[in-house]
Recover the amino acids of this structure.
């Protein structure tokens, strides 16, 4: 049996090890990808730090792009050699949520993959030579090969670099879902993006593509704010130097913004986003919160100002991934501008250390 290298996480706050394990085989309705690129995301970091409940040992990586090298039984939606990107939510296509078109809420995905690190026959495709199972976080893309359900892979247009397209699977798809379904953003509206990391920068670009008239980026790091301005932010706010909610209101003539996106998942930044939202506007939670973290919202203010609070868990893969990929191919989204670097898989530990320390502007893509 042929082998591959994979980045294995033995437990919370443990060093990531590059191990040689058996190359997986796709089951019915699945495809095997030769991974070309995998984005390093904060949600992976939460698992690494033990802040996101997930079984160990495991292989992380949920922003995956690659080439199809093997088809499982019954797959007719793609072919060997196809350039594809995988969505971080891997819809089963059969549960009630998928049937309603809300496949970002796929029940099987959350029960089997996020709950147990398995695919839809309730087993993992990965194991150590000892036979010990390795849980799969989404497609487990921090490896040379990855098994993905066929409903979760989408053809990458020839105009796009395949490695860069990896970030569409989470960062960009998440931003699209937040803009379209969370905020129901309309041309001419005003927007604030609180925390402009990988997802936040995608939100800045998405707001521009949706025709927002004013896009205010809020963060603690000057390099991230500079990147946000290059990607379309009309204004930037350094939240270490000012009351950012008051500053956003001043920038909008006292009104606040029609849509405030919080892209970090922290109580304090969510409270800030809420307080910069205009009367009748919407505060959209996009960042993944940790455990039972809770924000404090003044109920009287919420009532009086009729602000909507919406949670957004990405776009709907089967309908939205093709749309987002076309947007990128047409130049409406600049994937390269979000990516701050490409690093070999052997640098995975350093990349996540830098991410934890807030030193990564944009997205780093790891190359097996």
């Amino acid at each position: 049996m042929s082998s591959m290298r994979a980045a294995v996480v033995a437990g919370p706050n443990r060093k990531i090890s590059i191990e040689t394990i058996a190359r997986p085989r796709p089951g019915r309705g699945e495809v095997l990808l030769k991974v070309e690129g995998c984005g390093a995301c904060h949600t992976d970091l939460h698992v690494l730090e033990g802040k996101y409940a997930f079984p160990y040992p495991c292989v992380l990586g949920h922003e995956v792009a690659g080439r199809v090298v093997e088809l499982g039984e019954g797959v007719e939606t793609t072919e060997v050699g196809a350039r594809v990107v995988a969505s971080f939510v891997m819809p089963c296509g059969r549960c009630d949520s998928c049937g309603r078109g809300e496949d970002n809420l796929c029940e099987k995905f959350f029960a089997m993959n996020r709950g147990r690190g398995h695919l839809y026959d309730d087993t993992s495709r990965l194991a150590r030579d000892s036979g010990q199972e390795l849980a799969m976080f989404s497609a487990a893309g921090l490896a040379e090969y990855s098994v993905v359900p066929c409903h979760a892979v989408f053809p990458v247009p020839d105009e796009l670099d395949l490695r860069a397209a990896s970030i569409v699977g989470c960062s960009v798809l998440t931003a699209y879902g937040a803009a379209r379904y969370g905020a129901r953003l309309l041309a001419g509206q005003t927007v604030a993006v609180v925390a402009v990391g990988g997802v936040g920068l995608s939100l800045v670009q998405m707001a521009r593509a949706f025709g927002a008239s004013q896009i205010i980026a809020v963060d603690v790091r000057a390099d991230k704010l500079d990147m946000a301005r290059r990607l379309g932010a009309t204004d930037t706010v350094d939240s270490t130097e000012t009351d950012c909610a008051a500053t956003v209101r001043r920038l909008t003539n006292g009104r606040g913004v029609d849509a405030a996106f919080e892209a970090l998942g922290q109580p304090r930044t969510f409270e800030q986003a809420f307080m910069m939202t205009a009367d009748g506007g919407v505060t959209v939670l996009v960042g993944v919160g940790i455990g039972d973290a809770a924000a404090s919202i003044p109920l009287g203010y919420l009532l009086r100002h009729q602000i909507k609070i919406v949670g957004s868990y990405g776009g709907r893969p089967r309908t939205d991934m093709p749309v987002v990929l076309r947007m990128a191919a047409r130049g409406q989204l600049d994937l390269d501008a979000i990516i701050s670097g490409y690093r070999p898989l052997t640098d995975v530990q350093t990349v996540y250390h830098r991410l934890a320390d807030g030193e990564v502007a944009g997205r780093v893509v790891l190359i097996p």
